[in-house]
Design a protein that fits this description.
elongated, single chain, 121 residues
Length: 121
């Protein structure tokens, strides 16, 4: 009978997975921003893509009735942070709870925005 002991992942694989995830997030960000801007239609659209792709920034409109600068910055860093987190979760099993938590929070915010939309958005 052989007992298998789980070895920790080498640090280099964790760093490369984190870097790869962050790079994917950086590549996804301009496409997601473009889709959101096109959906918004210069203020005359429906913001549906922005609600699905950037729910944290859109949830801020409940409180401020517009998208404030810090939440615009959040939109720019959201997908690189997601990529970093999911890259780490791919390698380190301890990180998977954080990745799933972010997914659940994202979905909860999207559902809130869809079923109870902010007044002006």
């Amino acid at each position: 009978m052989e007992i298998k002991k789980e070895l920790p992942e080498p640090r280099s694989s964790l760093i490369s997975a984190t870097t790869a995830g962050t790079l994917v997030g950086i590549l996804v960000t301009p496409v997601a921003l473009l889709l959101s801007i096109m959906s918004a239609g210069a203020g005359h659209g429906n913001y549906l893509a922005a609600k699905f792709l950037y729910p944290y920034s859109m949830v801020s409109t409940y409180f401020f009735e517009s998208i404030m600068l810090p939440f615009v910055v959040l939109a720019f860093v959201q997908y690189p942070v997601y990529g970093c987190l999911f890259g780490r979760a791919y390698v380190a099993k301890k990180e998977r709870f954080a990745a799933w938590s972010v997914c659940v929070l994202h979905v909860v915010c999207v559902v809130l925005l869809y079923f109870h939309p902010p007044l002006y958005f």
